[in-house]
Amino acid sequence: MAVGSGPAARELFAEGLLQFLRPAVRQLDRHVHSVRESQVELREHIDSLATELCRINEDQKVALDLDPYVKKLLNARRRVVLVNNILQNAQERLRRLNHSVAKETVRRRAMLEAGGYQGK
Q1: Nearest CA among 113, 114, 112, 103 for reference residue 9
Q2: pLDDT in tens, 7-54
Q3: Is the pTM of this model over 0.70?
Q4: 84-87 long-range CB contacts below 8 Å, 24 or more apart?
Q5: How many whole angstroms separate alpha carbon 62 and alpha carbon 8?
Q6: What domains does the chain contain, in order, with CATH numbers?
Q7: What are the CB-based long-range contacts (under 8 Å, 24+) for 50-56?
Q8: Coiled-coil region(s) at which residues (predicted)?
């Protein structure tokens, strides 16, 4: 049987495309979630290290100027927070996309079933 270019063929193509995209969107969402968790952990380590450096600086009898290092750590922490916010926004967009793909798949299935398409 030849594949046409009518509405049924377009619907079938769209359904296939949605089925193809859904796993990729879900996998990307999982990866973004994993990176966000790592970012939070990194931020906590930076905070801990900055606190420890400040404590060491206060306890030293010899004047060691650790302030530049603390500032660098705090700057790195700020960048980590910024990246985490960007990832959070991207993950929210991915969730919305995944939801839209799922809704569109359900809608197209209902249209195909209502049209009497049986996949033959």
Answers
A1: 112
A2: 777 777 877 887 888 888 888 888 888 988 998 899 899 889 888 888
A3: no
A4: 84/36, 84/39, 84/40, 84/43, 87/32, 87/35, 87/36, 87/39
A5: 80
A6: 8-114 (1.20.5)
A7: 50/74, 50/77
A8: 73-107
